[in-house]
Amino acid sequence: MPMRFINDYIAISLCLITVLFSHCSQSQGMELLTMNELLNAEVYSSMEEALKEPEKVYKLDLDRSGLTHLPNYIEKFRNLQFLALGGNPFEKFPDKILNFEKLQVLYMPSCGLKALHPDIGQLKHLKELSIPGNLIEELPASFFELEELKLFDIHMNLLKKLPPEIKGLKAMDALTISMNPITKLPEEIGELKNLRMLEVCGATHFDRSSDPDYNAAINARYPVKKPMKALPESITELSKLRILDMSYNGFVRLPKNIGKLELKRINVSLTDMPLSEVERLKEAQPNAKVIAVGIE
Hints:
296 residues, alpha/beta, Leucine-rich repeat, LRR (right-handed beta-alpha superhelix), 11-stranded parallel β-sheet, 11 strands, 11% strand, globular
């Protein structure tokens, strides 16, 4: 082989090796912690401490820090995979959160949010999203692109419906949509084959706070106390479902084939069910703990 071709071959090989090494380095940089590793990772609750070694920050807890927006320097935490922002009065979902492409857990309770970011689907590795106590009325289309989402908690919001696109969240393990003005669930919920926990309890008279004005505000927010009247029959196709909370709703009867499920715990307290329906439930689910407070 002529020397010129040998030199060309060597140059091309070196180029390929460089590209491959670069790709591997990027892949290694994109490695995610397992959920167990993330659970045991150090939590940074001081921005000052976190900025000393930003590359080591996997978990950042900024709950109740008085933030109205995220500072620009937060983007230095390129390995961030857990972010807690509860109790900060953002009102608007911070755009900067979308830059954390490794984010797996996001907690934003009581932030005054009126909507999720329309591009939240960019958080491809998000596994837990907890946003209770906000003012969200609907879910953006991109939310249903979160294919790795396992836990979604949106209780105490203003969500009007759960759209049929929910069927796309195949990894969903726990779904909490309690205390929202949702009147019915879509039949497509039966396609969440990995779902183990479903909480759809309705609103009730709220008196848990020591502040009577806060209690009154919550009660005024949920004037309809028992919004849901029936569960779709497709719910009996959730073979992995173990916990079902349907309390404080207007349910009169259970799905016909409720016996197909293998529940461990079911709560039908303060529904409109007659005692005979509760007895049918106990017969159909002999291994489940049936909670039926207020049923006569």
